[in-house]
Amino acid sequence: MCDCDYNRSLDIATPRNVYLSGYYKRSFGYYSIKHREPVILTHLIDNLVRSKEEIANKLGPNAAEELKEIIGDISKLKYEIQTNKPLEKIPGTDLEAMAYNQCIDKCAVDCGNVTHFSCIWLLAECYMYKRIKEAFITRPSFKDYDYFLSQKKEGFDMCKPLRIQLTKHLNALTGDNDSDTKGSLLRDFTNLLKINLWGNKCDLSLSLGVVESQQAELDISIFEDNILADDCEKIFDVVYTETGTQIDIVLDNAGYELFTDLCVADYLISKKLIDIVKFHVKSYPWFISDVTKKDFDWMIKELMSSSDNLLKDLGNKWLVYKHKQVWKVEEHDFWTYPQEFVHMKTMAPDLYQMLSESRLVIFKGDLNYRKLMGEKNWDPVTPFEEALQGFNPAKLCALRTVKADLISGLKEGVAEQLAEKDSKWMETGNYGLIQFSEKIVPLENETKV
Ligand SMILES: O=P(O)(O)OC[C@H]1O[C@](O)(CO)[C@@H](O)[C@@H]1O
Ligand SMILES: [Mn+2]
């Protein structure tokens, strides 16, 4: 962005190769900040008011007073967003506060004061969830409180029929290894990856926190044409032929999506294609439905106590994977920073190193895709590798349903055709991408540009 006048958004679509921002009135970022974020905050306040008795009983004598302060903070945040105020600095000297303040300062240097509608959309959206967390974590009774838990649990319960169907499917694939061929493994792994991709459609931040009936389908053949890039074969080659004991899955949403993530991980372990799977979770409630460590453990326990024996057996099997450290759950604050992934190597070198040890890093969902792509409005035919802008810890892939107006790696003319059909095609989650990037080893004498 450049010499923007912050009190006036431009009534244009986002120009090519610039950061997404609410500054462009025809962008999804503008619509999100203007219409979606206030609704998300209003729903959060309504939920808190509705459960204030239960909260007071559960969280102790100071909770009622602290809850009033929290609701005040969230109402103030909503007002700041609606009146396009400058982003207030995050108090404290911890690394995450510094990451947010560094991002705000960078935006200020680039273009003057930094308001919700003028800064990079990624900062504005992450900042809202960071401020929500600050409202709770600064009140002693609420420091471990998950203010999105009820929606995540409701979403999980609603998808029980689909989970039973998928469990039967997984058991059929993993029940017998003797008749496996490379062809059958490719076919079944590809099928599971596509079921996993469409699991990303279920997303509470898109539905503004309202739990909708499960749109995901097991019969994914009906969505085949909506997969706009399909690198399943390249991904399979990595898990089938390469060495390296672990893969990493950078998780996105809890509920059905997480269930499909664990099914993919179970398949890889059961078929002895991989020895260890590392799951990367958020360290606090994020974008309404994103997975925390507690959500991961809660789901396995929930399965183990299911009335359905198939789910119960699966929960017991998955608990053993965790106890044996075949499955490891990793937290890192970087995943809730506002920065794009191209900054990971300098801002979180320990995390970058961990990912570098992976045979394959799978990034799930739309927000991770935006961070991979540097939150830039690329020409849609820009190669996926190019849009990574050098972020390259290991071989990686992105499984993403398209819920924000940025994309790369499409064939010539595809974006234009889809826009003809529906100008909002990038905001619905109806289209998906399965994109792969090789680990590009920089040439010895290659100078960094
Ligand atoms: O859970 P996901 O797939 O990362 O989706 C989160 C995305 O949904 C939205 O909140 C709505 O499009 C985006 O702003 C954000 O990138
Ligand atoms: Mn999410």
From TrEMBL:
SUPFAM superfamilies: AF1104-like (SSF111321). One of its GO terms (biological process) is intracellular phosphate ion homeostasis. The keyword Membrane does not apply. The keyword Hydrolase applies. It catalyses: beta-D-fructose 6-phosphate = dihydroxyacetone + D-glyceraldehyde 3-phosphate; beta-D-fructose 1-phosphate + H2O = D-fructose + phosphate; L-glutamyl-[protein] + S-adenosyl-L-methionine = [protein]-L-glutamate 5-O-methyl ester + S-adenosyl-L-homocysteine. Its EC number is 2.1.1.-, 3.1.3.-. Keywords: Hydrolase, Manganese, Metal-binding, Methyltransferase, Nickel, Transferase. GO terms for cellular component: nucleus. Its cofactor is Mn(2+); Ni(2+). Residues 34-417 form the Damage-control phosphatase ARMT1-like metal-binding domain. GO terms for molecular function: metal ion binding; phosphatase activity; protein carboxyl O-methyltransferase activity; pyrophosphatase activity. Belongs to the damage-control phosphatase family. Sugar phosphate phosphatase III subfamily. Metal-dependent phosphatase that shows phosphatase activity against several substrates, including fructose-1-phosphate and fructose-6-phosphate. Its preference for fructose-1-phosphate, a strong glycating agent that causes DNA damage rather than a canonical yeast metabolite, suggests a damage-control function in hexose phosphate metabolism. Has also been shown to have O-methyltransferase activity that methylates glutamate residues of target proteins to form gamma-glutamyl methyl ester residues. Possibly methylates PCNA, suggesting it is involved in the DNA damage response. Subfamily III proteins have a conserved RTxK motif about 40-50 residues from the C-terminus; the threonine may be replaced by serine or cysteine. This is Sugar phosphate phosphatase. The lineage of its organism: Eukaryota, Metazoa, Ecdysozoa, Arthropoda, Hexapoda.
